[in-house]
């Protein structure tokens, strides 16, 4: 379907498409198998000027927004959600600085991320704080002109690979939700180290790792936004980044549909290509309908966010839920279309199905997204 | 450093078929692409300019539609594109092609380094590089697979040979032809594509480069094509099966039988 992209947006798609077809697709199976971080591909994404799509021009970026990022991510995810996640996590790490950071932090860190020279990560989750982010136990205490961090973050995407970490910690325990603050921690800061690296079902090219802070000392200026505004920054960040996860579902589903349709045309059973069986056609038809519907919703949500509305959580959550539930279903059906071959690693669809599952979990589970949407509806209908 | 990259637009020969009756290429519906070797020449020029400073000019002799390829070269990092195009160039063999390219290089005010592909995938002669070097009286090396370092008056490079490689010190100005192993060409960048969209490709005709028309195109081409034909595919094929070890043993036995 034609979404009437501008010439510039069309160019973003073309560049991302070429990277996906020529660089990502040929090596995705190997990176998945070896659980290897896609450093070389991220370098090439940076070289192609796509690392800073959502970062302002004055900080070395392209000066686009959520929609521009979505267009690039859709292509990458068509190739590999593991690689696309590694790329997208840079945005998640950068958004706290973009949305709440001081001019000094922006000037220092954003150009490094925009050029693709450095990677970033976002560190919220802990062993006892998943959906309930308020359960975080990592602390930061001001000591002279330094903050001292203690605690352990878990399952941090790009952990061990990124150089710039946006980390939330409790600064004022008595203040509850207003007692948390975000900080920039650099990979070389004293007292900062990496722990366990996870072995995962899917997105195995992406690194998911523990971050350990043991009397980790950072300069006072590394605080992002106001002291106590940490959770506000986290929520704003996730509102901006969720369409990025949603579109991973769309790109992934498109990739799965492409594989399934091509296969169905060439696989012959009962003397006919299996695409001639109506049951297979209907599977493919539903996959196409749902992928397109999700794409339209994600594009709309991304454009809505780029217009800087006061309220964006509902749109952001809606597209995340719809597109990622869709991706799980479509990739499962792609395996079905390929039958036993689909279950084998010789074909890419089993990986696509494995990769789909995470989309319903990270950046807030789909149950939590529905809670957010429900709460917004509750407020809306109060008026 | 002033770098000129010679680029040829070629039919995508992966999709070309020979018409069995006329024995000519049926170009219908075949896309024109940048000669794949030239993509590597361009990448090398762009990364040398980034490393050592300098400008990269993409130069091509060809019909007006070759301007599109030159825009692609700008998208991949070239600073400017120059097209030499004139009806008088039609039917050029390698002698006339190098004459035209040499005049164009002189019209551009010479260069410190000219990089060509090893060969074009359509003409396949691999003569244009050396021919151009001869005409411009430049130091020349073919099949370069790595450039180690550029110094003031020379560069250090590796040349692929059938039986290994040579390490060379080549005085500047020089002309090199490159093989695919030299680098991995970059994907056109977003800023590059935007530059390309705005770029105006300079176009020179025969008069602009001060060429003698008697030496151009068909008139300047002593090559005569006597016959074109598709070689018959002969020879029997045998598929070896079994484990790798079994296949190797069987192959060795077959070879021994021949010797
Ligand atoms: C591969 C991977 C990468 C990740 N990357 C990052 C990262 O870069 N940065 C980061 O900070 N975190 C990251 N996470 C953490 C991720 O965001 C959390 O896993 C997620 O928010 C869910 O938390 P949990 O796993 O602890 O699940 P839990 O919160 O324990 O939830 C378990 C189940 O209960 C349900 N549930 C919980 N509460 C409710 C409720 N109130 N109503 C209804 N259902 C509920 C959930 O939906 C889920 O089904 C990553 C996780 C993974 C697996
Ligand atoms: C027997 C024969 C008959 C031919 N007859 C005709 C004919 O009748 N009509 C006709 O149009 N053509 C004809 N050609 C094609 C023409 O001679 C060649 O295409 C042209 O001279 C370039 O030679 P090549 O393709 O072998 O390039 P190579 O020598 O293999 O190319 C090496 C490198 O030189 C550079 N280069 C080559 N050509 C150009 C160019 N045009 N601009 C910029 N850089 C370039 C590139 O860097 C390239 O990688 C004929 C060729 C042969 C061999």
What does this protein structure show overall?
The complex is a heterodimer of chains A (383) and B (259). Chain A has 10 helices and 10 strands. In chain A, helix 3 runs antiparallel to helix 4, helix 4 packs antiparallel against helix 6 and helix 7 runs antiparallel to helix 8. The longest helix of chain A has 37 residues. In chain B, helix 3 packs across helix 4. The longest helix of chain B is centred in the N-terminal third of the chain and has 17 residues. Chain B contains 6 helices and 13 strands. At the A-B interface, helix 1 of A face helix 5 of B. One flavin-adenine dinucleotide (FAD) binds next to helix 1, strand 6, helix 3, strand 8 and helix 4 of chain B.
* H/I helix tally of chain B: 6
CATH topology of chain B: Rossmann fold
Q: How far is the N terminus from the C terminus of chain A?
A: 37 Å
Helix content of chain A: 40-55%
Largest interface, with Cβ-Cβ < 8 Å?
A-B, 16 and 10 residues
What is the CATH C-level name of the largest domain in chain A? Mainly Alpha
Instruction: Please report the number of helical segments of chain A.
Output: 10
What is the number of beta strands of chain B? 13
- Compute the number of structural domains of chain A: 3
Radius of gyration of chain B: 21 Å
Structural class of chain B: alpha/beta
Strands of the widest sheet of chain A, in order across it, are 1-4-5-8
Classify the beta-strand content of chain B into a percent band: 25-35%
What gross morphology of chain B would you assign?
globular
CATH architecture of the largest domain in chain A: Up-down Bundle
Rg calculated over all Cα atoms of chain A = 21 Å
| H/E element sequence of chain A | HHHHHEEEEEEEEHEEHHHH
* Name of the CATH class of chain B: Alpha Beta
Largest sheet, strands/sense/barrel of chain B: 9 strands, mixed
Strand content of chain A: 15-25%
Mean pLDDT score of chain A:
97
């Amino acid at each position: 379907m034609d979404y009437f992209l501008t010439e510039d947006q069309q160019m973003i798609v073309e560049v991302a498409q070429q990277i996906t077809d020529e660089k990502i697709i040929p090596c995705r199976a190997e990176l998945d198998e070896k659980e290897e971080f896609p450093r070389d591909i991220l370098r090439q994404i940076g070289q192609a000027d796509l690392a800073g799509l959502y970062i302002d021009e004055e900080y070395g970026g392209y000066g686009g927004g959520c929609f521009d990022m979505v267009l690039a991510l859709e292509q990458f995810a068509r190739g590999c959600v593991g690689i696309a996640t590694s790329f997208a996590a840079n945005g998640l790490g950068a958004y706290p600085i973009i949305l709440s950071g001081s001019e000094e932090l922006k000037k220092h860190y954003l150009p490094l991320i925009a050029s693709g020279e450095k990677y970033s990560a976002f560190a919220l989750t802990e062993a006892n704080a998943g959906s309930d982010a308020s359960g975080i136990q990592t602390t930061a205490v001001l000591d002279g002109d330094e903050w001292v961090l203690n605690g352990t973050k878990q399952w941090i995407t790009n952990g061990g690979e990124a150089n710039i970490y946006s980390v939330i910690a409790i600064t004022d325990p008595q203040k509850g939700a207003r007692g948390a603050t975000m900080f920039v921690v650099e990979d070389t800061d004293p007292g900062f180290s990496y722990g366990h690296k996870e072995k995962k079902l899917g997105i195995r090219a992406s690194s998911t790792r523990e971050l350990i802070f043991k009397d980790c000392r950072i300069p006072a200026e590394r605080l992002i936004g106001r002291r106590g505004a940490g959770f506000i920054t986290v929520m704003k960040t996730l509102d901006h980044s969720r369409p990025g996860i949603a579109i991973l579902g769309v790109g992934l589903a498109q990739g799965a549909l492409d594989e399934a349709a091509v296969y169905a045309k060439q696989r012959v059973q009962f003397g006919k290509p299996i695409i001639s069986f109506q049951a297979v056609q209907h599977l493919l038809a539903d996959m196409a309908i749902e992928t397109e519907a999700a794409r339209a919703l994600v594009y709309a949500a991304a454009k809505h966010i780029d217009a800087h509305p006061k309220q964006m959580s509902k749109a952001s959550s809606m597209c995340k839920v719809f597109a990622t539930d869709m991706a799980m279903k479509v990739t499962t059906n792609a395996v079905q279309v390929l039958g036993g071959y689909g279950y084998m690693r010789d074909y890419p669809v089993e990986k696509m199905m494995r990769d789909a599952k995470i989309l319903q979990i990270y950046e807030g589970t789909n149950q939590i997204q529905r809670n957010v949407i429900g709460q917004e509806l509750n407020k809306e209908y109060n008026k | 450093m002033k770098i000129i990259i010679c680029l040829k637009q070629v039919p995508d020969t992966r999709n070309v078929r020979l018409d069995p009756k006329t024995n000519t290429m049926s170009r219908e519906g075949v896309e024109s692409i940048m000669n794949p070797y030239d993509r590597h020449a361009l990448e090398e020029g762009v990364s040398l300019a980034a490393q050592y400073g300098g400008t990269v000019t993409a130069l091509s002799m060809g019909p007006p539609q070759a301007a599109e390829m030159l825009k692609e070269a700008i998208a991949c990092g070239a600073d400017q594109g120059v097209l030499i195009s004139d009806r008088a160039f039609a039917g050029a063999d390698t002698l006339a092609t190098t004459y035209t390219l040499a005049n164009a290089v002189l019209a551009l005010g010479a260069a410190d380094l000219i990089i060509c592909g090893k060969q074009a995938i359509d003409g396949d002669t691999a003569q244009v590089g050396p021919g151009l070097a001869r005409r411009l009286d430049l130091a020349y090396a073919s099949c370069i697979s790595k450039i180690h370092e550029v110094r003031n008056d020379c560069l250090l490079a590796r040349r692929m040979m059938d039986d290994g490689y040579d390490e060379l010190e080549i005085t500047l100005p020089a002309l090199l032809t490159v093989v695919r192993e030299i680098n991995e060409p970059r994907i056109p960048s977003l800023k590059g594509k935007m530059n390309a969209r705005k770029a105006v490709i300079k176009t020179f005709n025969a008069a602009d480069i001060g060429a003698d028309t008697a030496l151009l195109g068909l008139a300047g081409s002593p090559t005569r094509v006597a016959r074109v034909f598709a070689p018959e595919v002969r020879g029997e094929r045998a598929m070896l099966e079994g484990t790798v070890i079994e296949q190797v043993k069987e192959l060795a036995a077959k070879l021994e039988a021949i010797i």
